[in-house]
Description:
Layout: H1 4-12, H2 17-24, H3 28-36, H4 46-51, H5 73-85, H6 87-94
Helix pairs in contact: 1-3, 2-3, 5-6
Amino acid sequence: MPTREQVRQLAESGLGYEEIGRRLGIPPGLAHLIGTGLPADGGTAPEEREARGLPPTSRQWANPPHGNPVAKETVRQWIAERVRADAQMRRAKQD
């Protein structure tokens, strides 16, 4: 898990939370939380954000898009192979 110091150093170098998250391998909302101590879901008063020198909003980092690996053909093929290799799973598939 990245440290507050790591996130702050990257932010002070001029990077945004999207890039900080990419570099540290975490979602931008988590980078924001680690660096500022404030959630990115918009639950912080505008006055507090202004007092801390933060942008007026951070909600764009709260729920980053995610992928569903089950929808990938390679995942379906892997599951099918696992079913073929396991008699108990084959029986479960027939039920």
